[in-house]
Fold:
Amino acid sequence: MFSAEARPLLHSAAWRISAWAALAYALGTLIVFVSLHLYVASDIERRDDAWLTGEVEVLGDVAERTPKGALYQRVVEEVAELASHEVPNRVAGESAPKDAVFFLETDTQGKLVIWVGPGKSDPFLDQLRPSHAGNDAPFTIQTMGFSLPYRVVRTHIDDGSTIYLGLSDRDQLRVLHMFRLRFALLWGLLVLFGFAIVFATTRRMLGRVLSISEAAARIDQNDLSARVPASLRKDEIGQLAQTLNRMLDRIEAAMHQLHTITGALAHDLRSPLTAVRGNLELSLTAAEGATRQEAIIVCMEELDRLVDFLNTALDVAEAKADALRLNREPIELDQMLRSMAELYEPSMNERGLTLRLECTEPIQITGDLALLHRLFANLLNNEMVHLSTGHAVTMRLWREGQLVRFSMEDNGAGFAADVLERVFEQRVRGAGSKGHGLGLAFVDAVARAHGGTVHAANGRSGGARILFTLPAQSGQGTD
Structure:
């Protein structure tokens, strides 16, 4: 599927696309995680503050209701100890560390009354007195000798004492750490999985493009029959393959037409050029007078026929390759046929032929006036060449819905059976014909270029019949 000369994997387009897609996905999910992490941390802190506020109110209520004395400190210490066992965010079954919670009560002078917590109270008092003297909202302190911060709330009791309750951030930080760790593992797996999916899909898709490129590279001037691999899928790459194959079909047809026309021209030009050369030699050797003049006139007539043959052959070749250029303009087709009938009628009468035109309404189309004129001239010239004295030619023009139809019918011998099926092919000539077999091929080419059709048949009486059909607004061919 892939070329042996393909680029290294790290330099391939599939790798770059996958890397950029994975990077975009990683950044997007990282932004989502940061937002989620901030939300979780804020929610945990809110829950800790709610717990601290509730517990400090309980401790304050106990301190107010308990009489001062030796029993007071013991009761308050027991209540504070019980509160330490209800710390939030703790794993079920895990015992409370000694430094998880502290309880501290100071008198109206800020001196220590009760201390329940890890180590000595002095570091905590140093942090609580100056920075948060007027702050009743939950706050955070970092105490010397302790690596973890504490979240603290306080309340005042009626005798002027102040109670502080602090909760270590250990459990909160542990929850966030596990959250980050699990996210990092899941994030890494998802990014790798997404990269693999994008890489496999992109490599498969670009592999189809590469196979199309390799097939196109194998096509050269000597072999235009190869085609790019097509796909049954109706996606963009499948459409690309179909478009390339259609283009190759047209190129092959054009090249085949070029080879055919060059071969035909080489064959058909040999005889007229030889005749021209012979007449020129005759004019050189002839004495002054009628012989030399006649030879020159014959050469000029041969050259005119040769030019007409070349023009017709090239027009047919262009039309077969769908490359015939049209100069579109509105054409009064009925008037053009009347003019041609008036032009050809004297010549046909001299040969003992009768020409009749039947057209009952004005008919306008859009097309190339010069090409259509040559088309009808070819048909009339064929009749003059192949019909014998006493025969008649009838031309009919009429509209049928969105179509314009023209027929030319005679009462002669008609088309030979072996010619009828191939009458519009190049170089197909009837017995005894002196032409090049391009007249009706040109008629078919012009009809196709105008978006129409032409058919040939033998009439019921045996004569030849040509039916030419055009759209009412013709000109569907190539500009």
About this structure: The longest strand covers residues 392-400. The chain has three domains: 13-176, 236-320, 328-471.
